[in-house]
Amino acid sequence: MILNVLFPPAGYAYVGAWMAVAITLLIIVTVPILVMVATLEYPPGLYAAGMGPAIWASLAVLAVLGLHAALLARRAPSRTGSQLPHGLLYMAPWAVAFAVNLAFNAYWPNPAYAITARAMQPTLEPGDVLAVEGARNACAAQPKPGDVVLYRTGPASQALMRVVAGPGQRVMMASGQLFIDGKPVERTSAGATRVMETPLPVEIVEETLANGARYRTLDFGPEGALDTLHEVTVPAGAWYVLGDNRDNAADSRTNGLVAARDICAVGLKVLSSKDESRVGQRP
Question: What is the spatial distance between Cα 58 and Cα 31, in angstroms, rounded to a whole number?
């Protein structure tokens, strides 16, 4: 009976109520998808009140269905004969739900990621939730300069940085000034902010690439360890990435170029942030 309460389709399968099995599985599978679609379209959506209320609401619905399924199963006549067919029949809805959940997590085209690092400040802060274009199990993104990308750094690790140059382009930095193809990237001061790394105000600098992509960076000063680098030509099949927090990011300046095959997704939209002005914005 406990299993029926925890997973209603199994209880319905036990008594042969296959229409109820189908409807319950449909609810379990489609409601999360619809919620994610609505959140992506109208952020913060699911994140507006936090995950707690959503989880409790889901548990309440499952509890009602589970109790109903458990009562039906309890009233049903005892199964006779070999228990193997009954066991397989009982487990079938569990297997279906598990397989659908795995497929959803692996191939949903706009998964969400929680930001934990400070490398992309001031664009993305720790605690922000970012939706991306690119399924978790399919690294096939096609970025362009200015895009924030999620890429593999190892068998089970990923990083989030901004593409500033692609194949054939030349990248150089001199005292914090970024140069692409020998031309300085346009820089405009956008005020100052405070970050954990220093008690002093840090300048916010807005950069504009040749293709019109515009984004903000943090500048701790022109003499940082990574503020000057020799010119590098990006080869075919690679991209040059930088963190927006230029003095606190392990990017192509330290870890080398990113292979195109390792770029898994492109940042799409901020779904949740303490700074409400960033919600819904492309990073």
Answer: 10
DSSP 245: B
In whole angstroms, give the CA distance from residue 11 to residue 40. Answer: 34
Which two structure tokens, joined as six digits, stand for 83?
């228990």
pLDDT, tens only, 232-244: 999 999 999 999 9
On whether the CB atoms of residues 279 and 131 are closer than 8 A, the answer is no
| pLDDT of amino acid 134 | 96
Residue 192: which H helix or E strand, with range?
Answer: strand 186-195
pLDDT bucket at 68, cuts 50 / 70 / 90: confident
> From CA 184, how far away is CA 220, in angstroms rounded?
19
Beta bridge partners, 238, equal: 259
Q: What is the pTM of this model?
A: 0.84
Q: What pLDDT, on a 0 to 100 scale, did the predictor assign at position 5?
A: 55
Per-residue pLDDT, 82: 57
Q: Are 83 and 128 in contact (CB under 8 A)?
A: no
**Residue 244 CB neighbour total at 10 angstroms:** 25
Q: Mind listing the pLDDT tens digit for each residue in 246-258?
A: 999 999 999 999 9
Chain centre to alpha carbon of residue 254:
24
- What residue ranges in 107-176 does DSSP mark as E strands? 112-114, 129-133, 148-154, 157-165, 170-174
Query: Which two tokens mark 158?
Result: 């990923």
Residue with tokens 């942030």: 273
Q: Say how many CA atoms lie within 13 Å of 19 toward its Cβ.
A: 0
Task: Assign 69 a pLDDT band (cuts: 50, 70, 90).
Answer: confident
Check the CA dihedral 130-273-186-256 and report its sign. negative
d(CA 25, CA 93): 8
